[in-house]
Amino acid sequence: MTGPAELRCMLMRGGTSKGAYFLAGDLPADPADRDALLLRVMGSPDPRQIDGLGGAHPLTSKVAVVSRSADADADVDYLFLQVGVDRSEVSDRQNCGNLLAGVGPFAVERGMVAAGPHETSVRIRMVNSGDRATATFPTPGGRVDYTGDAEISGVPGAAAAVVVEFPPGERALLPTGHVRDTVAGTEVTCVDNGMPTVLIPADALGVTGYETPQELEADGRLAARLHDIRLAAGELMGLGDVATATVPKLTLLAPPRYGGAVTTRTFIPVRCHTSIGVLGAASVAAGIRIDGSVAAGIGAPPADGDRLRIEHPTGFTDIESSLGRTADDCPLSRRTAVVRTARKIFDGTVFPRSATTAPLPAPTPGGHR
Length: 369
Known about the structure:
Layout: E1 7-14, E2 17-23, H1 31-42, E3 62-68, E4 76-83, E5 90-91, H2 97-109, E6 119-126, E7 132-138, E8 161-166, E9 181-183, E10 186-192, E11 196-201, H3 213-217, H4 220-236, E12 249-254, E13 262-267, H5 278-289, E14 307-312, E15 315-325, E16 331-350
Parallel strand pairs: 2-3, 4-6, 11-12, 13-14
Antiparallel strand pairs: 1-2, 1-16, 3-4, 4-5, 6-7, 7-8, 8-16, 9-10, 10-11, 12-13, 14-15, 15-16
C-alpha cells in the first residue's frame, strides 16, 4: 500500500519542538503503512529532509496522531511518533511533552473537543505510555487564541500559555528499584517521570556540563561513553535492547549558573538537545528531589515550594514538582505541571513524496550538495 497522494495536516510548534499533527482517521490503519507514509511526508531518510516537512533535526521531525478517546477519563488519545531524519525509522517508544502542548489546541481546531467561552481544558491520554495530562489554554469566544505574553526559552517571542498538568503518579519513579546504579563504570540515577531518563554527573564523564551542544556532539570519546551507558541502562530499566530506540534519554548534570536548580545537557539519544523536553525536565525535576540521587551536591532544589528551574543550553524550563512515597516507601510523583506555549503554523494539505521515488545519487566530488 502506498498511502494517499494527499492528506490533511496541521504543522504546529509545540514547546521547543515542531511537528506535523494528523487525525488518526486520515492515516493508514496499518502501522507499517502509516510509518512508510510518514517517512515520505517528512522527507526521510535524508539529512536535510529537503523533500518533505522535516527540519533536518530530531526536534523538527516529529508527528502527533490524535483521535477521540474511548477512555472515559480522557477526551483524546495522542500517539507520538519520532521520525528518523537520515534513517528510515519511525519510533513510538517514547512520549513527547513538547508536541503534547499542541494536542489540546489541535483537538479544538478539529472539532474533537468543544471550546469553552474563555478557556478550555483537554484531557489527554498519551498512547505511548498510558500516562495522562490535562492541557488548559485560552479560547476567547470559543476559538483557540495563540497570542499571549508567555515566553519560554528556546522560542523567540511570546504566545498564549498552555498549562500542562500531569496527575499524581501511580508507579515508582525508580525503574531499577535503586536510587543509584553503576552503569558501564559510571554512577547514575535512572528516573521515569513520564520519560525514561538517566541522570549523570557531567564531571563523571570528563566534561563540565556547560559546553554547547555542538561541542558535546563533536566529542567522540564522550559519544562512546554515552553509547555504552545508554545500552546498559536500557536493560536495567526494563526497556530491553535500546540500540535502535530513542529512549532512555541521557541528561548530564552540573551545578546551576543562573539561579536555577541544576544545569542540564540532554542527549536525544545522540544529538544534544538545544533545550530540554518537557517530560525529560519532569524526570530531572523529580530526580534531583530524590534523596541520595547522583544530583546530591550538584542540584539545588528550593527548600520551599514546588517550582524548580531547570537550566539548559538556551535558557530554562520551570517545572512544578512534588514527590510522595509508595506503600513500600519508594518515591513517586505527586504533582507535575509546566507552562508551555504552542502555535499553529499552517493548516492544509500535505503531498507526500512518491513511494516510487528513487534515492538521490551520491554527490560527486566538488559538486553542489
